[in-house]
Design a protein that fits this description.
Chain lengths: 374, 258
């Protein structure tokens, strides 16, 4: 692998450049971008790294592998105030694992950072673990936060669909690569008065044994999910394709109600991909999200957590979605959905006289008594 | 062609989990284990590829304590030709690099054309073992693959990686290569009766690992714990009809109905 190291095209003079190089970078953040735009998750990850840098003391540099690099580098430098080290490969302008690994491994050897912070996305996960092997670094994925300890920061990640937390640290004496979950930070960076510096290097890497043939754009998603007021979403707890009908019936009771689902129902072919909510599907923020049989794996929650009112109907009291939901009903969907539909239609049977009262919002009440039946 | 499929077991995720007394992960006693769903898709993809190339052979491998033999035999039931158990002592927590190192040592002595893994395991959800294995073996790797086609001369594979919003990244790799498989790529088949019978009787290749403590590691576990209860939501209790009535009342209050 050769690198034609043409330093330059920088708006600072040479002496400033040398001074920049000698300053230690304790944390390198790897920027993510798609279709000539910086991905929002990059700024979330920079915010995370900034807090980490403040707590342990240290400088941040943002690494960008892109071609052309300048417009993206300038945006990052301006928005974050951090210095940007950009690497441009004319032959490989797309994301390429071999290119990222080669460039970032060389950068890590040069800067010896303590941490390399990467967005936890399909792209980040594609190169971060291999980069760890290349550089002898530790590797911790799916991190939501860090905690300071005497020995250094430890990182928290959730496992088993959020039912357990692990606190993990890197091995001593070597860099630690960390992938940070989208949404772990709200990405609101402080406005920086001064843009960071930019250094762009042209890179000439012998091709690896993989090459990008292209990208396939998904069919344009209808705005149905985005515009919906009410979403009735099904998950693994929906035990058969015949129950999709019940979801549709429930959604149909609302002015702008739409059926959606988590990934498993699409994998099984019970609902089309356009219905999927989550990281590889769509993000939604309806007024009401009724999650039927959805455990709340983090990839799904990412796509719906901004919903105004979240109701979870599940048999699993410990499901992570129950922590997120405003209301939880622990019930068998096969019994509960028909009952809910009937009650919403106003034809439901009355509950027992001793039924428990529950609080809705203060002063709430729909002004109507329950319907009476002969 | 020779295909290696790495499979792992995961516990049933629908019940509650308890933390081990020593804080080193979750308590396994009482949990029911099954094959990782992503690995089932990887295995199915291997079997479909094998069916295209008449002389192909599928090896299913798992790293773990005695219980993983059940997953290996399950792979044989689906149609894998050969099963390998890299046996470590019970109770040993292996991180992704340790696991990948064990698999790499095994694979380095054979010549697999294609190595498939699930994109992640459903329990730890790290997504690291596949790419680390590729790096250790010096092979190219593509992750989160939802479409895989081996060329007719078995020298290359074209894969589609699934990105956010279902955008796909199309990559061609020279074989041998490692591919991690995302769910939705296929629907795994049902085991055939003849394979089920074979799986019961067939001898597995067993590799016993003695000094697992000296394996390379990529992280140190400080402790496992139950997450802080962050929920402020209300549980609507009662019989089905009471719950339905109360939820209907809450929903009606929002004035969203037709």
């Amino acid at each position: 692998m050769g690198v034609s190291g043409a330093l330059g095209k920088n708006h600072l003079g040479d002496t400033d450049l040398v001074r920049q190089d000698r300053r230690e970078a304790d944390i390198v953040v790897v920027a993510e971008h798609h279709e000539r735009a910086i991905a929002t998750v990059t700024y979330e990850v920079v915010a995370f790294a900034s807090r980490l840098a403040r707590s342990m003391g240290g400088a941040i540099k943002v690494a960008l592998v892109a071609s052309p690099a300048r417009p993206l580098a300038e945006e990052i430098a301006r928005v974050t105030g951090h210095d940007v080290l950009a690497f441009e490969s004319q032959e490989v302008p797309f994301y390429d694992a071999h290119l990222y690994r080669s460039v970032l491994a060389r950068l890590c050897r040069a800067l010896a950072p303590r941490f390399v912070v990467v967005p936890h996305t399909p792209t980040g996960l594609d190169f971060a673990p291999s980069l760890a092997v290349d550089t002898g670094a530790s590797c911790i994925t799916g991190v939501t936060r860090f905690t300071c300890h005497q020995e250094g920061p430890a990182f928290t990640r959730e496992i088993c669909n959020g039912k357990l937390s692990e606190e993990v640290r890197g091995l001593p004496g070597r860099p630690c690569i960390v992938t940070v979950m989208p949404g772990a930070e709200n990405g609101a960076l402080r406005v920086e008065p001064e843009a960071g510096t930019i250094r762009i290097e042209a890179v000439d890497i012998a091709p690896g044994r993989a090459r990008t043939l292209g990208y396939i754009e998904p069919p344009i998603a209808t705005s149905e999910l985005r515009d919906a007021e009410v979403i009735v979403a099904g998950g693994r707890g929906i035990k058969g394709p015949e129950w999709v009908g019940a979801l549709r019936e429930l959604a149909g009771l609302f002015r702008r109600g739409v059926v959606a689902c988590s990934r498993p129902l699409c994998d099984m072919g019970w609902l089309p991909f356009e219905c999927q909510v989550g990281m590889t599907g769509q993000s939604v923020s309806p007024k009401l999200y009724i999650a039927c049989g959805i455990s709340g794996a983090v990839h799904h929650i990412m796509g719906m957590k901004k919903s105004e009112l979240i109701v979870a109907i599940t048999l699993d009291r410990n499901a992570p979605l129950c922590s997120l939901a405003h209301y939880c009903v622990i019930a068998d969907l096969r019994l509960f959905l028909p009952a809910l539909i009937e009650h919403l239609k106003g034809t439901g049977r009355q509950g027992g006289a001793g039924g428990p009262e529950i609080h809705t919002e203060a002063g709430a009440g729909d002004g109507q008594g329950p319907k009476q039946y002969a | 062609m020779d295909i290696l499929v790495c499979v792992t077991q995961v516990p049933d995720l629908e019940g509650p989990f308890r933390v081990r007394d020593d804080g080193r992960g979750y308590e396994e006693a009482g949990l029911v284990f099954r094959m990782n769903a992503y690995d089932e898709c990887a295995l199915e993809e291997a079997l479909r590829t094998k069916e295209r190339f008449g002389t192909a052979r599928v090896t299913a491998l798992s790293v773990g304590p005695g219980r993983v033999e059940q997953a290996i035999r399950r792979a044989l039931e689906f149609g894998a030709d050969h099963g390998v158990h890299i046996a470590v002592q019970d109770d040993l927590r292996l991180d992704a690099l340790s696991t990948a190192s064990l698999i790499a040592s095994f694979a380095a002595e054979r010549s697999f054309d294609l190595i498939l893994c699930g994109v992640m395991s459903e329990d730890t959800q790290r997504g690291q073992t596949g790419p680390m294995l590729a790096a250790l073996l010096g092979l190219p790797c593509a992750t989160m693959v939802v479409s895989l086609v081996v060329s007719d001369d078995a020298s290359r594979v074209v894969v589609e990686r699934e990105l956010e919003g279902r955008r796909r990244h199309v990559v061609e790799m020279h074989l041998p290569a490692v591919v991690t498989i995302q769910s939705g790529i296929n629907r795994p088949r049902y085991p055939s009766l003849s394979n089920k019978l074979r799986a019961k009787r067939q001898e597995l290749e067993i590799v016993r690992i003695q000094e697992a403590e000296s394996l390379p590691a990529c992280e140190i576990l400080v402790r496992a714990s139950l997450p802080e209860a962050k929920g402020t939501g209300v549980f609507i209790e009662g019989e089905i009809e009471e719950q339905a009535e109360q939820l209907a009342r809450i929903i009606r209050h929002r004035a969203l109905l037709l």
